[in-house]
Amino acid sequence: MSNVSIKSAQEIALMRESGRLLASVFHALDKEIQAGMTTMEVNDFVDAYITDTLQARPASKGQYGYEYVLNSSVNEVVCHGVPSVAKKLREGDIVNVDITLEKNGFIADSSKMYCIGKVTPIAKKLVDTTYEAMWKGIETVKPGATLGDIGYAIQSHVEKEGFSVVRDYCGHGIGREMHEEPQVVHYGRKGTGMHLVPGMTFTIEPMINQGTYKTKLKKDGWTVVTRDKKLSAQWEHTILVTESGFEVLTLRDEEH
């Protein structure tokens, strides 16, 4: 617990603003993303919007040597998909767009699934179940709850629908740094792990696979894919533990 940054009221206000701005990025992207667009065009649109329109900083760009402002993870890509001028979005694709934004020294992190045109019923079910699971996890957040409670809520919902929870990647504390303590895994047992206290901020970002939870890292050193080449989906929000429950700092207009 000593490594966990508990945010002050002033810091929370700044994080709230970063989260609000990031939500507006997705609102703008909603009108742009479509079949025929390359994932690099998605990246460049978001880069310009964050930098020029919002006067903020894309927090992923340059971090750990990464060159781009977002991850674009299509179909069997679990996470960390690298934007490409060659990768066009096609009718029937599902794509996770994961964006980070820093304003006034504080970072917000969120991701959203986009269904490109008409997708298969199993793809739609996977996307919807992953979204529901994220919210099941979020709704457990309150002072005195544990990280295991979050993981249990997500895992039990997902497995009931016949899908699996990725074990290799997880959520994380966030604030002045993109990755702070604690690690937030998306599977687990009730009542285990760190207890939540007001002022903690972290991401909940379940990666859910159609088939096996096992993953593979591609040769580019970034892109993570499902071992069985089946579909994967992910949604993410940045969460604050409040005195009585939770606040979603990256909540988008359509979710209010």
Automatic annotation (TrEMBL):
Superkingdom of origin organism: Bacteria
Cofactor: Co(2+); Zn(2+); Mn(2+); Fe(2+)
Entry EC no(s): 3.4.11.18
SUPFAM superfamilies in the cross-refs: Creatinase/aminopeptidase (SSF55920)
A Pfam family the protein falls into: Peptidase_M24
GO cellular component: cytosol
Reactions it catalyzes: Release of N-terminal amino acids, preferentially methionine, from peptides and arylamides
GO molecular function, one term: metalloaminopeptidase activity
Domain Peptidase M24, first and last residues per copy: 14-243
Description of how the protein assembles with itself and partners: Monomer.
Entry-linked HAMAP family: MetAP_1
Name used for this protein in its record: Methionine aminopeptidase
